[in-house]
């Protein structure tokens, strides 16, 4: 009988039962997903310092501060766990879902609220995963350039391939989030006739803000590069910039360089 | 047997009604019934056939008491029995409305509604337990309609002047059944009920004259097998589908009851069938079913036809002065809430006289114009929204804009296997509950009383009376290896094979449709001696053709819906014959049985209490070719036999 | 009307199935979809071929026995309508219609268009009830139920258990069905004593039957002939989550 079990065993047993169930898995996915969204919000907020000044010193300073924080490894491990759990459960539930509907219909049509986001969660998830790997290799596991993280980022996003990868990654993330936030909240039981509209809009807005915020990096860098190339070819003066690297194109004076 | 004769023997028809004051009879009887020690209950195995309100409530309650129960249904789940389709509500003498209701009034309304052809003792008991049903259903989670204060709401229904009908929107039957079904599922989960869905009962097995088992066909595998038990409960519903077109579900049939009848259970008052006044009219030959519009609609809808014969104008263009609100005209005190038999017949009278509307002039209007003007569209939508939608879906007409067209349709059968006060048939150990028995509604059932009776039988009556059988009789251990079982299984196999081996040209459905039409024309809402005799000849001839020219494809192994249908229609033929014979012998008009020879000059039914105040219980003769009729006299000690007036 | 039907035919649960094509003439707009199939079956019988097996019973949209996926939509193109209440006036002359059985691993095909939905019964047997011994309940009016709760419970209780939600879901999830039953009983005071146990056991059985998980695409809600809301799924999630956290057993 359950009440004879020691407290700890019971807790473990209960957790296992919970995570063994479809609902428990979805709840765990939702919680990890939402925590990852929280991380994204923080990540974006910090990274926006990139646009604060032209020599990226605020951004570099922020990066340095983070790196010197003794709690960083802990946070990184936490993030890794969230990510792995989210991912692992995604594969488990997908497999289970495929098994539950082994035979497809000859004719099928979507009648409910199926969206691009909802029907591509696994694909966009995998794309985001691939992107995260690239992103970590680019910045987490690469030796820091002497001119700072901001300059590294600028260089990476100036390469057409780099910009392309980052843009694709952000698009995949945006599509993923367009369904993920509201879906996660619903899985956690958030549903009320009076607030459903608000929740739906709020979730979409959040996804949109994250998408636009992260998309701004490749877009701004590429845009400004294009802008200055155009500017330098039309008038031969050259922009008043001090390229740190000879291979790097001249950069615009302001962050909103794409507005040329 | 060319002309029906009625021999009168009462030998086996002891109704076992307790004596004494009406109000104390059930109490007294319960005290006198033998009890079974709780520890011994699990030694008894009860077979329950059918899982509608009666079957599900009986099976779950008996299992809760400790009996071993096996329950059988033909649907894929117990939850789908046709009780689910009842719309309007369930009566109970709670008097929550403080409007003058009481057990005695519900008893009286039911007896009078049944045109004084039901047993006083049974009906009084029904009224007595009606309140407990509401308590039980509420506890099981039935979401009855409520007032803002949280207490239960009531509505009025036909044949009563008090508001005693409890309801769950237009889905009362569904909710009550889901309640009983959930109780049943609880027992299935705990292992005390073994459930056999998609199993059809094909025969009853008697051992030493006592019902001890059934033969079933597994509708998926086609396997025919038998089950042994200590009692058999038939909760298999009514036989309205003998008319082919009825409000019954497609799979409703008489086979289980009929097989029991052939094994010795008397069939009582088969001619008492109820025609419901408010159904969606027939639209063509393809039609497979008629859809009921709840009687509750008559609370707000007004029934009328044009005053001019053959008036083809759209209803909106017929001015008030040229409309005949015939129910309000003929029955001023009950008006549109006149009982079903009366409302149906009044509609037929108008249509026959040439005032009907719609295709073929077979319908009348049910008009919500006044109610919408009085209460607003929203109020009407809240009350009847789902029914209006259903109407629009079927007819493509909007009842908010124009009146509904409605016409009478077969809905319920008051007749059924004869049972005594214990709900036991003339075969010892065979109990019959719900619509399958004949007991409580006499010649006409009042609205919202079928649900009440089904649940009363299952929740509150059989749990007591079954004990009397189990404790009172010696029941030697039997199992399905006995000869009686093997023979019955073989006979059922043989019968099933027969339908496949005829290899004729006509489909089962075509036979069923023709039988139904014949029954409707000759033994429907109005009957005459000549018409009945002609009908009898037609049914017999058609039955012969059926056995000669039936065509069933497929095999007996595995799922074969035509084969299932064939067996059921074969039994309907025999039942149809008996219904006509019963209608012939009853030379009076009462309730749903209207003999044109017996009417007043105003066209009202004329009962003959001097000669026909009895239950006609038919016994199949031993040769299997005809029937012998037995009479159970009905004694009314507590109500005055009166002309039933709703004027 | 003339129609071309592609119907899934399958002899039994173990055999392989496939589509067969039939032309049906003499279809009238006022026929129901099942009556149209009756017409086909009558003809097949006359021609010496086996009729198409399909589940049906009340033919008035309440028993939940009928099923069918019609051109990719469970119960066909009309919202809040069962197949038996679907009328042929919804289709046009010369139309081609694909008729398939409900598809889910938990709903194996028994024959042609007939599937086995007994998984639903087993889920309900696991906990979809209120334990109330016959005869023991108090007077029905002794426990007032706020009208709002009673109405919400009724909305959920309108479920007919047809399985269209499962058929419509790409994951064959039974969440709407289970959510409706859990909601119906949890909303009523009578159902509260067992609410945790009920949620835990029904979900456990739902998983054991092999239904998938919910991805909140709301296909079930769109297919439901009784318009059961996905709010019931959210309520099931809350009930289950809370029961998992708080259940003392």
Could you tell me how far the N terminus lies from the C terminus of chain B, measured between alpha carbons in angstroms? 42 Å
Weakly predicted, low-confidence segments of chain B: 1-10
* Percentage of residues assigned to helices of chain A: 55-70%
User: Under the CATH scheme, which architecture of chain A would be assigned?
Assistant: Up-down Bundle
What's the rounded overall pLDDT mean of chain B?
Answer: 95
Residue stretches of chain A low in confidence (pLDDT < 50, at least 5 long) are 237-260
Query: What's the CATH topology label of chain A?
Result: 3 helical TM bundles of succinate and fumarate reductases
- CATH class (first level) name of the domain at 495-633 in chain B: Mainly Alpha
Hey, which two chains have the biggest interface? B-C, 84 and 81 residues
**Apparent shape of chain B:** globular
Number of domains of chain A: 1
Structure classification of chain B: alpha+beta
* Main sheet specs of chain B: 5 strands, parallel
Description:
By secondary structure, chain A is mostly helical. Helices cover 70% and strands 0% of the residues of chain A. In chain A, helix 2 packs across helix 4 (72-100) and helix 2 (22-47) packs across helix 8. The longest helix of chain A is centred in the C-terminal third of the chain and has 39 residues, at 196-234. Among the domains of chain B are: 277-410, Flavocytochrome C3, Chain A, domain 1 (Alpha-Beta Complex), CATH 3.90.700.10; 495-633, Methane Monooxygenase Hydroxylase, Chain G, domain 1, CATH 1.20.58. Helices cover 37% and strands 15% of the residues of chain B. Chain B has helices spanning 22-32, 38-41, 53-65, 103-113, 120-139, 172-189, 255-262, 326-330, 340-352, 369-375, 377-395, 450-472, 483-501, 508-523, 529-549, 561-585, 609-612; strands at 45-49, 68-72, 90-91, 165-166, 193-196, 199-207, 210-218, 224-228, 231-234, 267-268, 273-279, 302-306, 323-324, 364-367, 404-413, 416-417, 430-432, 614-620, 627-633. The radius of gyration of chain B is 24 Å and the shape is globular. Chain B starts with 21 loop residues before the first helix and ends in a 14-residue tail after the last strand. The model of chain B is unreliable at 1-10 (pLDDT under 50). With 249 residues, chain C is α+β, with helices and mostly antiparallel strands. Chain C folds into 2 domains: 3-111, Roll (Ubiquitin-like (UB roll)), CATH 3.10.20; 118-246, Alpha-helical ferredoxin (Fumarate Reductase Iron-sulfur Protein, Chain B, domain 2), CATH 1.10.1060. Chain C has helices spanning 33-46, 118-127, 147-157, 164-168, 175-187, 195-208, 219-223, 231-246, and strands spanning 3-9, 18-24, 69-70, 73-74, 96-100, 109-111, 114-115. The mean pLDDT of chain C is 96. Chains in contact: A-C, B-C.
């Amino acid at each position: 009988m359950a009440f004879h079990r020691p407290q700890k065993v019971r807790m473990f047993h209960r957790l296992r039962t919970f995570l063994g169930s479809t609902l428990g898995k979805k709840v765990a996915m939702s919680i990890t997903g939402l925590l990852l969204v929280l991380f994204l919000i923080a990540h974006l907020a910090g990274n926006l310092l990139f646009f604060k000044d032209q020599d990226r010193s605020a951004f570099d300073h922020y990066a340095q501060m983070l790196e010197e924080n003794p709690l960083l490894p802990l946070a990184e491990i936490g993030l890794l766990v969230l990510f792995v759990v989210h991912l692992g459960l995604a594969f488990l539930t997908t497999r289970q879902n495929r098994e539950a509907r082994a035979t497809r219909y000859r004719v099928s049509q979507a009648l409910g609220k199926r969206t691009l986001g909802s029907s591509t969660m696994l694909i966009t998830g995998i794309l985001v995963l691939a992107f995260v790997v690239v992103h970590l290799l680019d910045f987490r596991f690469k030796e820091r350039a002497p001119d700072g993280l901001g300059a590294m980022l600028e260089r990476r996003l100036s390469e057409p391939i780099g910009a392309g990868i980052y843009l694709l990654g952000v698009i995949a993330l945006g599509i993923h989030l367009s369904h993920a936030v509201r879906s996660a909240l619903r899985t956690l039981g958030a549903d009320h006739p009076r607030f459903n509209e608000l929740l739906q809009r709020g979730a979409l807005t959040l996804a949109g803000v994250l998408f636009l915020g992260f998309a701004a990096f490749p877009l701004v860098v590429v845009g400004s590069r294009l802008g200055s190339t155009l500017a330098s070819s039309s008038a031969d003066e050259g922009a008043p910039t001090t390229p740190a690297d000879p291979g790097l194109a001249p950069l615009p004076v302001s962050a909103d360089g794409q507005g040329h | 047997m060319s002309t029906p004769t009625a021999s009168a023997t009462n030998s086996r028809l002891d109704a076992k009604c307790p004596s004494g004051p009406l109000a104390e009879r059930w109490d007294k009887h319960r005290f006198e019934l033998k009890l079974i020690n709780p520890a011994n209950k699990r030694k008894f195995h009860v077979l329950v056939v059918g899982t509608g309100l009666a079957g599900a409530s009986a099976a779950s309650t008996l299992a809760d008491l400790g009996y071993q129960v096996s329950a059988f249904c033909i649907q894929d789940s117990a939850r789908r029995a046709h009780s689910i389709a009842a719309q309007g509500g369930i009566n109970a003498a709670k008097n929550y409305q403080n409007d003058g209701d009481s057990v005695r009034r519900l008893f009286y309304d039911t007896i009078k509604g049944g045109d004084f052809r039901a047993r006083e003792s049974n009906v009084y008991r029904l009224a007595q337990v009606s309140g407990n049903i509401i308590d039980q259903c509420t506890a099981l989670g039935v979401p009855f309609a409520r007032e803002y204060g949280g207490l239960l709401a009531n509505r009025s229904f036909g044949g009563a002047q008090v508001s005693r009908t409890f309801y769950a929107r237009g889905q009362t039957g569904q909710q009550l059944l889901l309640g009983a079904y959930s109780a049943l599922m609880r027992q299935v989960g705990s292992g005390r009920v073994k459930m056999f869905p998609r199993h059809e009962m094909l025969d009853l097995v008697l051992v030493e004259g006592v019902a001890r088992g059934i033969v079933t066909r597994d509708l998926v595998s086609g396997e025919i097998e038998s089950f042994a038990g200590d009692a058999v409960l038939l909760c298999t519903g009514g036989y309205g589908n003998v008319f082919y077109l009825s409000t019954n579900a497609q799979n409703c049939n008489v086979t289980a009851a009929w097989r029991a009848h052939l094994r010795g259970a008397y069939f009582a008052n088969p001619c008492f069938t109820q025609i419901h006044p408010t159904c969606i009219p027939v639209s063509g030959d393809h039609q497979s079913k008629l859809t009921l519009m709840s009687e509750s609609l008559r609370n707000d809808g007004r029934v009328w036809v044009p005053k001019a014969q053959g008036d083809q104008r759209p209803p909106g263009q017929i001015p008030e002065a040229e409309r005949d609100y015939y129910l309000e005209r003929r029955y001023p005190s009950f008006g549109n809430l006149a009982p079903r038999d009366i409302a149906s017949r009044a509609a037929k009278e108008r249509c026959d006289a040439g005032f009907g509307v719609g295709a073929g002039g077979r319908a009348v209007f049910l008009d919500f114009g006044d109610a919408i003007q009085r209460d607003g569209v929203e109020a009407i939508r809240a009350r009847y929204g789902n029914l209006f939608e259903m109407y629009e879906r079927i007819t493509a007409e909007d009842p908010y804009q124009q009146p509904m067209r409605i016409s009478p349709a077969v809905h319920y059968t008051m007749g059924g296997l004869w049972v005594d006060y214990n709900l036991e048939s003339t075969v010892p150990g065979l109990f019959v509950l719900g619509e399958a028995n004949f007991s409580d509604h006499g010649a006409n059932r009042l609205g919202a009383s079928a649900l009440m009776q089904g649940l009363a039988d299952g929740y509150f009556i059989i749990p007591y009376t079954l004990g009397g059988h189990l404790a009172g009789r010696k029941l030697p251990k039997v199992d399905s290896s006995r000869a009686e079982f093997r023979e019955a299984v073989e006979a059922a196999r043989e019968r099933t094979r027969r339908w496949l081996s005829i290899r004729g040209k006509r489909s089962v459905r075509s036979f069923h449709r023709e039988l139904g039409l014949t029954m409707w024309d000759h033994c429907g809402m109005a009957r005459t001696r000549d018409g009945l005799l002609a009908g009898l000849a037609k049914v017999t001839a058609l039955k012969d053709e059926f056995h000669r020219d039936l065509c069933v494809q497929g095999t007996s192994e595995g799922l074969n819906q035509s084969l299932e249908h064939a067996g059921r229609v074969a039994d309907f033929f025999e039942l149809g014959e008996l219904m006509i014979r019963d209608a012939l012998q009853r030379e009076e008009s009462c309730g749903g049985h209207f003999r044109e020879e017996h009417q007043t000059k105003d066209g009202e039914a004329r009962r003959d209490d001097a000669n026909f105040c009895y239950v006609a219980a038919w016994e199949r003769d031993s040769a299997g070719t005809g029937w012998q009729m037995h009479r159970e006299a009905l004694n009314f000690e507590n109500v005055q036999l009166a002309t039933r007036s709703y004027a | 009307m003339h129609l071309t039907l592609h119907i899934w035919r399958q002899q039994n649960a173990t055999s392989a199935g496939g589509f067969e094509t039939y032309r049906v003439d003499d279809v009238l707009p006022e026929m129901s979809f099942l009556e149209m199939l009756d017409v086909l079956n009558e003809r097949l019988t006359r021609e010496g071929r086996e009729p198409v097996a399909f589940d049906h019973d009340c033919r008035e949209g309440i028993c939940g026995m009928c099923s069918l996926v019609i051109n990719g939509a469970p119960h066909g193109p009309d919202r809040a309508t069962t197949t038996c209440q679907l009328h042929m006036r919804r289709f046009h002359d010369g139309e081609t219609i694909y008729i398939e059985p409900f598809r889910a691993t938990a709903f194996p095909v028994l024959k042609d268009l007939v599937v086995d939905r007994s998984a639903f019964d087993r889920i309900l047997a696991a906990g979809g009830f209120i334990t109330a011994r016959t005869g023991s309940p108090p007077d029905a009016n002794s426990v007032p139920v706020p009208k709002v709760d009673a109405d919400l419970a009724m909305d959920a209780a309108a479920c007919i258990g047809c399985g269209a939600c499962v058929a419509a879901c790409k994951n064959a999830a039974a969440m709407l069905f289970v959510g409706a039953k859990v909601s119906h009983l949890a909303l009523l005071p009578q159902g509260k004593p067992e609410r945790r146990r009920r949620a835990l056991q029904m979900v456990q059985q739902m998983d054991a039957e092999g239904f998938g998980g919910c991805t909140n695409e709301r296909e079930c809600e769109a297919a439901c002939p009784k318009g059961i809301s996905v709010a019931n799924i959210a309520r099931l999630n809350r009930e289950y989550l809370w029961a998992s956290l708080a259940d003392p057993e």
